[in-house]
């Protein structure tokens, strides 16, 4: 049965789209719509056509999975939308839910738009490295002018119904079911004479269009790594200066060019990767997620207070506990000042800030955690302390409560055992600043109960985080890979590369920050302590030069940005070169018999930092720590500033070619020696490269 049906009643033709769950624009929807439209065209007695959707939303976008289907081309969609717009009787569309991408373009092709209260509308294609390819770049500017059209298409942000009404994107916003809203609007329209209104024939409302285009073009050219932006601006310019047909041709050409681009493939890869990362092998659909109504956090430091805000922002009652009065006060102050700053910047209403703060209680007594459904410990990264804290939480937390650790590197299974109730325990590794960073590594312990895992993944969605499940190992997915990256950065420093040279080599690829800037910002003390803790647990290679620089910097009190000195010297936030850092590295090189040289090229830096990280990623996959390579990409894009237009380290490695990665790793092993196994190629990577296969050939267990 077709997912699109046509019928008429009370003199109005109705096309109903029912293609659950999101009514995505697919090939079958296209053919269904076309057939339904033909039925309307065949019945000249009907003065008006209404298009609406059943289910939770109007068409929420195009089915991206069908982009490779040649029958589902932009041309085919455009032909249908042009046919809808060309109708000689008015076409009304009733909108609800999320009206995005092709759904929005379908709406723009209709003559009138009525939306249910709460509807959100947008053209988010730019986030996938493409542009609206079904007339969106041509119709929207004609409707609202260049400034708003550019804002919506360049940001991809959805607009709420009321904003859409105020700007004329929709003609009415009402409470009620889409069908009823559409019929009521249609009848009123007929009563007023039922004028046709075709956006393609309209000219844009008056405004400062050329100025808006000039500044958008200038901004777009500053981010050439997102070529869709410049293409969008150029299409909008066409919409305002040329006829619809030539603008539509420019849009179609740009769409064809952008779709196969490396950037769009990378962005689409990450889009699917994020969706997949929530599917957990061994976690049956029927496992129910538990209810989390109150969250407790132990440790009100940088992380504890940031984590508290994640829950407060989502309207969840939160108890913040610290052993030290000063620690608690500092945490509370951090939360207050963050909200105050948001109010001052106009990003939050004062009442909203007060409402969030009202959900927070603080205590110096850990008994306050007893009624919580989930308790997250965020005390210092010290195994002895964490074991003691977990023992205590096992006693204090109510039966059935989830006990989570925010540890960055420590053994979650050992912490789970310490609680005496290991099935209740899970790692929840937030990233700093916790209220801002999207990533949440969910560490699945050997005994973590399926329901605990399901509850935490569900909760991650509610607090706006992107969860990725990791098994237990030192540093989990992200920090374990970062360790290899930092190891090579430090060896390069000792070999004579400057911090700026190293940072610039990876920043040139689009990483937000190179390793030296990153560690200086996170704190060299924090970085050094991680290495020291790992050493205590016997986790370091028997190599005295291993991460010797960070340990020395820590010893010398160079803690990075916070102390004004680290790999760089700081004036405020500005990082300046510091010859002293070079001298420290040179001394260490001499002490460890490392030869300094002056021929370190950017390519060598990239290969040593990033290819070694990919190799570690393959080991992580092979050990089952990550379920899929795409999960690793999500970790790096959402938690470590890896450029989304490169799709994450594993996707990037495939783009370079896995055989090429293997060849360069082997080259390092030969030229640098492989005493501690640093350059041993992962057997999984070796095998995939030899068989010319990609990571997709590996099935999740
Ligand atoms: P922090 O030093 O800022 O805060 C730790 C807080 O814990 C302090 O307020 C301290 O008073 C409190 N505390 C210590 N012992 C306690 C006890 N027995 N009971 C109650 N409170 C106690 O540390 P942080 O940077 O927030 O790190 C906390 C945890 O988060 C660590 O496990 C760390 O590895 C992890 N983490 C840190 C980052 C980061 O970038 N800082 C990122 C991810 C994870």
TrEMBL record:
Domain named 3-hydroxyacyl-CoA dehydrogenase NAD binding is located at: 294-470
Q: Which reaction does it catalyse?
A: a (3S)-3-hydroxyacyl-CoA + NAD(+) = a 3-oxoacyl-CoA + NADH + H(+)
Q: Which GO terms describe its biological process?
A: fatty acid metabolic process; lipid catabolic process
- Give residue ranges for domain 3-hydroxyacyl-CoA dehydrogenase C-terminal: 475-570, 605-690
What are the record keywords, sorted?
A: Fatty acid metabolism, Isomerase, Lipid degradation, Lipid metabolism, Lyase, Multifunctional enzyme, NAD, Oxidoreductase, Peroxisome
Q: InterPro entries from the xrefs? A: 3-OHacyl-CoA_DH_NAD-bd, 3HC_DH_C, 6-PGluconate_DH-like_C_sf, ClpP/crotonase-like_dom_sf, Enoyl-CoA_hydra/iso, NAD(P)-bd_dom_sf
Annotated compartments: Peroxisome
Pathway, per Swiss-Prot/TrEMBL? Lipid metabolism; fatty acid beta-oxidation
- GO MF annotations in UniProt: (3S)-3-hydroxyacyl-CoA dehydrogenase (NAD+) activity; enoyl-CoA hydratase activity; isomerase activity; NAD+ binding
The protein in question is named: 3-hydroxyacyl-CoA dehydrogenase NAD-binding domain-containing protein
Query: What organism, scientifically named, is this protein from?
Result: Comamonas koreensis
